[in-house]
Design goal:
The protein has 501 residues and is an alpha/beta fold. 39% of the residues lie in helices and 19% in strands.
Length: 501
């Protein structure tokens, strides 16, 4: 599957936007998003295939399709007009929807959401990327629900901490994992988008560093069975994800990393190559032999167990359900919060805390999944068909938490997972509170299906919902990496999510 390339070297290095996906771009006033896109797409290779749909005159260097709302009686007619624009475009094109605030004032939010959802369902085979613009917190309920229909989002914020007003963009779910939720200050000068990289505002990556990273990456890919990652210098990064990932992979062999992160192994290799250039890690050559290839399928007894209801399946698999006490969750939250306040003093840690909770639980779920594979006599490298996904989620949540989820298939690559009996929410809150469950779902499914998943909570009992509801999506096909892992299983299972120092 290809991805969107804007022609801006740094943005394209950071981002990972699959063709055919949809994004949400939020800002404060509406001006920041237009300014950002105008500079970002200055060198877009397919300028004729980039369309900005608006109800107002717009100063942007792209083709603009004006919609006259006074001539459109309802949302159905608007959908027809947008569909005409979409049909006129070819693969690799881009549509920017700049009319949502005006439409939401006239139409019910749920009707607009249903139209967008129908567009996404019909766009399964499309390679057109679509970006929806919205002013942050202007329509909070709609914004939250739209997040669940998109592959990710770009948030543009105004930075008022310095003497002069500045701008920052932050990507969620549509970038490489190491850049998820990382803040990138930027400037727009002479129509060019300058992003802060290191200590300077630039629009191109330093060539020397880029070549060095590419050479190190090639070396890692050619020696997957024979490399161990060794810490060689003090790791310096303000990005919580980077610090967490570094703490997990240091001291590991590449094939152990491949087992732990099978769906994003190549992305981790890119990060390791960059860290090597910066002097954070070095590569130690080992004498390990390449293990045999993985099994093609699971055993008959396992397939039979997956055909039974969850309690009976656990009996066949020789697993007993055990519930993680709520005290354990609160202990995890306090530990992560203490780490975050130490590493990032003086910052609003609400979003970062939620992200770290999810990451720590995700890696725990990955290790547990590998352990279960081994205990039932299966090869952890075996990839299951997605038809087993509802059963695997039911087994995972019942075994780990005593919860009984309802899993509904929306499309071949999208599922809704709801928990009427969620015990995590506790007291009422203004935001979803169940990141622990999302981390478990993503971690377990990533190991079992070797696919990259995203999981967002769209409804929560803590904020007034009848159940805690999650949208689970297969993000993109996983990279294919040759080689086996059996000889490395014992040392991998000694590891647990490590404390970051």
């Amino acid at each position: 599957m290809g991805r969107l390339l804007t022609g801006h070297q740094i943005f394209d290095f950071i981002s990972s936007i699959p063709e055919g996906s949809a994004l949400l771009l939020t800002d404060e006033t509406g001006f920041e998003a237009t300014m950002f896109l105008n500079a970002l797409l200055r060198s877009f290779p397919n300028k004729e295939g980039a369309v900005f749909i608006s109800v107002e005159p717009t100063s942007i260097g792209l083709k603009v399709e004006r919609i006259k709302l006074e001539e459109i009686p309802d949302i159905t007619v608007l959908s027809f007009e947008v569909e005409k624009v979409r049909r006129a475009l070819k693969d690799g094109c881009l549509i920017i929807h700049g009319y949502l605030p005006h439409v939401l004032i006239r139409e019910e939010e749920d009707r607009v959401l249903k139209v967008i959802e129908s567009w996404r369902e019909r766009a399964v085979n499309s390679k057109i990327v679509e970006i929806f613009l919205l002013r942050r917190n202007a329509f909070p309920s709609f914004e939250k629900k739209l997040h669940s229909l998109t592959a990710g989002s770009i948030n543009i914020e105004v930075d008022r901490t310095g003497k002069e007003v500045g701008f920052v963009f932050k990507m969620l779910g549509c970038c490489k994992p190491e850049y998820h939720m990382r803040e990138f200050p930027f400037q727009v000068k002479d129509g060019r988008l300058l992003v802060k990289w290191g200590e300077e505002f630039v629009e191109q990556l330093p060539l020397e560093g880029e070549d060095a990273v590419r050479n190190r990456l090639k070396y890692l890919q050619e020696n997957v069975n024979s490399i161990k990652i060794v810490e060689s210098g003090r790791f310096e990064s303000s990005n919580p994800y980077d610090r967490w990932l570094f703490s997990q992979v240091k001291g590991m062999k590449l094939m152990e990393i491949n087992m732990l992160f099978p769906e994003r192994f190549n992305e981790v290799l890119e990060k390791l190559a960059a860290w090597s250039v910066k002097g954070y890690v070095k590569f130690e050559f080992t004498q390990d032999q390449a293990p045999p290839p993985p099994r093609d399928r699971i055993k008959l007894t396992t397939r039979m167990a997956l055909a039974f209801p969850t309690p009976i399946a656990l009996f066949f698999l020789r697993r007993r359900a055990h519930t993680i006490p709520i005290k354990v969750y609160h202990t995890l939250r306090r530990s992560v919060e203490a780490f975050m306040s130490t590493q990032l003093p003086g910052k609003d840690l609400k979003d970062e805390l939620a992200e770290m909770e999810l990451r720590f639980q995700e890696v725990t779920a990955r290790l547990t999944a590998i352990e279960v594979y081994l205990e039932i006599g299966e090869d952890p490298r075996t990839k299951l068909d997605l038809k087993y996904l509802p059963k695997i989620i039911s087994l995972t949540m019942y075994y780990g938490y005593g919860l009984k989820p309802r899993v509904a298939k929306i499309t071949d690559y999208e599922y809704e997972v709801s928990f009427a009996d969620c015990f995590i929410c506790g007291e009422a809150a203004g935001r979803p509170a169940c990141q622990l469950l999302a981390g478990t779902i993503v971690g377990g499914c990533s190991i079992v299906f070797k696919e990259q998943f995203t999981c967002n909570e769209v409804e929560c009992k803590a904020s007034g919902g009848e159940a805690c509801v999650f949208r689970l999506r297969v993000a993109k096909p996983p990279p294919k990496v040759e080689g086996g892992l059996e000889s490395l299983i014992p040392s991998l299972l000694k590891r647990r999510s490590r404390r970051i120092t």
